[in-house]
């Protein structure tokens, strides 16, 4: 609301619209498109799951990492899996904020952990979409902001935003922390960055861009618990074959994908990571605000430079929403028909591939 509108409303005795409500009203079209995209993708996956005799709810609430988080929420930390090859997987690899929130919801509401996890993830996805809109609207206007939010909801791995996973929670706290930096609300920026750092390992991107308290706090706590304050958490991650090796493991996987027959999900993961590198270069050339650039750069760096679970790299890039800015800006200048065609093509890929990932692919997300 402009100053003139505010003064006119006050002079007429009308109650002025709060700034947050006005901002939400401006974001409603984008949030509606995002919700429609995610609901359609979820319904397509659910329809196929029912067709093959699987429970859609179990798929999105207790599959893969979701089950680890739900078990932490239900029983606390302490679960360890030992495999015949000698590797050890500990639940200390999973950050505490999300299972803590799940536990809080089940304490006050008569729902299961899986349902609580879904409610949190869906709410966080909506909050993240609003935060993304707020950032891009401030930098590039409403049309570009709407397109970025829609594109984020139509990424090939965006089905994860409908699951009991932590990417929506991290993105929500990260987006609003970065928005607080852009608007010079430093206390909010630090507080939200702390929560983002307690959400996921790649929350280190928010720590690097804004404040490191949450991420460093959990990493140190795991270190003290395992008897190695500085290296304990990274030892736990190595049990999951996850470590930063400057891209050596990723390059080996790329070699195997190129030279040998491999699964479709690995091929698409390679293409998505390659596209992310190109988009990052274009994004950096636009000279974005430093906080956004650092946040995105760290997410891309740890995704490309980390080893293990190559098929999960596109999921690790979901919080890197600034990568969509170059594409959105091109689409705003293109003819409407071309923009519609690109959007429809992305929607088809997102809905079909999301269904494949959750119901047919043998690889973990």
Characterise the protein shown here.
Mean pLDDT is 92; it is low at 1-11. The radius of gyration is 21 Å and the shape is globular. A hairpin with a 5-residue loop joins strand 1 and strand 2. It has a two-stranded antiparallel sheet. A two-stranded antiparallel ribbon has the order 3-4. It is built from 18 helices and 4 strands. The chain is mainly α and 365 residues long.
H-E order:
HHHHEEHHHHHHHHEHHHEHHH
Number of strands: 4
Which structural class should the secondary elements be placed in?
mainly alpha
Could you list the spans in which at least 5 consecutive residues all have pLDDT below 50?
A: 1-11
Silhouette = globular
Task: Measure the end-to-end span.
Answer: 43 Å
**Oligomer status:** single chain
Q: What's the overall average pLDDT, rounded? A: 92
Put simply, the count of helices is 18
Helix content: 55-70%
The largest pleated sheet is described as: 2 strands, antiparallel
Report the β-strand fraction as a percent range: under 5%
Task: Give the topology, please.
Elements: H1 3-11, H2 19-51, H3 56-62, H4 65-75, E1 80-82, E2 88-90, H5 97-108, H6 113-140, H7 142-153, H8 167-182, H9 186-197, H10 204-209, H11 213-226, H12 232-239, E3 243-244, H13 248-259, H14 264-285, H15 290-305, E4 306-307, H16 313-316, H17 325-333, H18 336-359
Antiparallel strand pairs: 1-2, 3-4
Notable traits:
two-stranded antiparallel ribbon, mainly alpha, disordered N terminus, globular, 365 residues, two-stranded antiparallel sheet
